[in-house]
Amino acid sequence: MTQLLLLFVAFLVLVHVPPGRSEFKRCWKGHGACRPYCTKYETYMHLCPDASLCCLPYGLKPLASKPENV
């Protein structure tokens, strides 16, 4: 009986453990990730809909457009 109770308690604990993976919402056409803060290898572009930062790797940061001469 105690083994059955122990098995039941272990099952309940495992059910409540969140999965080990971390998935962030994507932004900037799927190239960025919405996070509370950016890593040292990323730059902030804009805010995501949930007010977190859209972080892009430095290599994907778009270049500033040149003003057109009219």
Walk me through this protein's architecture.
The protein has 70 residues and is an alpha+beta fold. It has a domain at 18-61. The chain contains one helix and four strands; from the N terminus they run αββββ. It has a four-stranded antiparallel β-sheet with strand order 1-2-4-3, with no helix packed on it. The protein is rod-shaped, with a radius of gyration of 22 Å. It starts with a helix and ends in a 13-residue tail after the last strand. The model has no long low-confidence stretch (mean pLDDT 78).
List the helices and strands and how they pair.
Elements: H1 2-15, E1 26-27, E2 32-35, E3 42-47, E4 53-57
Antiparallel strand pairs: 1-2, 2-4, 3-4
Q: What is the tally of beta strands? A: 4
Mean pLDDT: 78
Describe the main β-sheet briefly: 4 strands, antiparallel
Radius of gyration: 22 Å
Domain Beta-defensin: 26-55
Function: Has antibacterial activity.
Signal peptide: 1-22
GO cellular component, one term: extracellular region
Features:
defensin, single chain, rod-shaped, antimicrobial, four-stranded antiparallel sheet, Beta-defensin, Beta_defensin_dom, alpha+beta
